[in-house]
Amino acid sequence: MGKPGVLGSLAAAATAVAAIGVLVVAAPASAQDCPANPQGLGTSRVLNIEPGESVRFGLMQYRQTLPLADKEVVLTFDDGPLPRYSDQVLEILAAQCVKATYFLVGRMAREFPEAVRRIYAAGHTVGTHTQNHPLRIHKMSSEKVAEEIDAGIASVAEALGDPHKLAPFFRIPGLLHTETIESELAARKLVVFSADVVADDWHRHIRPSEVIRRAMSRLEARGKGILLLHDIHPVTVTALPGLLKELKEHGFHVVHVVPAEEPGRIEAAEQAMPPTPQSVADAPAEWTSPATPEGKPSGIGHLAWRHGAFAPDGTDGDHGDVARRLPDPPPNVTAGGANSDSLPARN
């Protein structure tokens, strides 16, 4: 007779572990671990990830994802830190005893190192997301890609004050992957995270209720998965309490992803960082995105600009095209629909 309920689901998930090099370690963090909020969502267990040359997760790009049981979700936040919003996200997560994985932009980490340290001190996993979140990373040479990866690692490690605190986890800007990018990441044995579900919280004018609806409907459709959010947008801050409440009410359990071995062994080149530009005109070429003949920006990704100089931008439903203007966030491309409208699963 098979194992019933959650235990059976965990056993099924564990059968995929050997094939993708993941150690699964149970680490319950239920209501008794959240004395300030006995009804909090909590963190149900921990997944220890063993780094390797081809460890990649997320069905939006790859054929495999994390070995999660049904109704399990991994929360991830990109593009920060931006203290005005990142700090509020931390407070909301702490109130529910929820742990997440952060993919930080190096330049933002250099600008706000205290915010990086707050994320780590709260018990969250800290990974990287390049130095400048280049909008055309898929068009860059291997040398430029390597510089972005290494500088981002160096900046976040410096902000943490200890490279051993940095997880060898990486998310490609815009969820774009090429052989060049994958080769550089594999050479550094970085674990590459795509996503299984997006909530479109980077869309301009999207309502918090719609962020919650899209996240929940897509998670329910998949049954589990890696959820991509951003800690640099006010709508995410507003939506997050309701999203965590919905996750609990619908029987979802949060899984915290951590490195299986001591982090900090990532080799990153020492680089002198140029000053952050004060306007779009001063930004390096790889930060900008030429428009198509139709006037639609052709850059890929969503960039967390320096607070006070650039505003967080919007992107379309494919986690793709970027629009920018100063001082307010730009008009957004038409929002996407179901999760199937996002990037298809590819090798």
Written overview of the protein:
This protein is of the alpha/beta class and 347 residues long. The chain has a single domain (15-264), classed as TIM Barrel. The protein is 29% helix and 14% strand. The chain is built from nine helices and 13 strands. The chain has helices spanning 5-14, 17-20, 83-95, 106-111, 113-121, 142-160, 179-187, 208-222, 234-249, and strands spanning 22-25, 45-49, 56-57, 72-78, 101-104, 125-128, 169-170, 191-193, 197-198, 225-230, 253-259, 314-315, 322-323. The strands form three sheets. Strands 1, 2, 4, 5, 6, 9, 10 and 11 form an eight-stranded mixed sheet that branches. Strands 3-8-7 form a three-stranded parallel sheet, with no helix packed on it. A two-stranded antiparallel ribbon has the order 12-13. The model is unreliable at 1-20, 23-32 and 263-347 (pLDDT under 50).
What does the secondary structure layout of this molecule look like, with pairings?
Blueprint: H1 5-14, H2 17-20, E1 22-25, E2 45-49, E3 56-57, E4 72-78, H3 83-95, E5 101-104, H4 106-111, H5 113-121, E6 125-128, H6 142-160, E7 169-170, H7 179-187, E8 191-193, E9 197-198, H8 208-222, E10 225-230, H9 234-249, E11 253-259, E12 314-315, E13 322-323
Parallel strand pairs: 2-11, 3-8, 4-5, 4-10, 4-11, 5-6, 7-8, 9-10
Antiparallel strand pairs: 1-2, 12-13
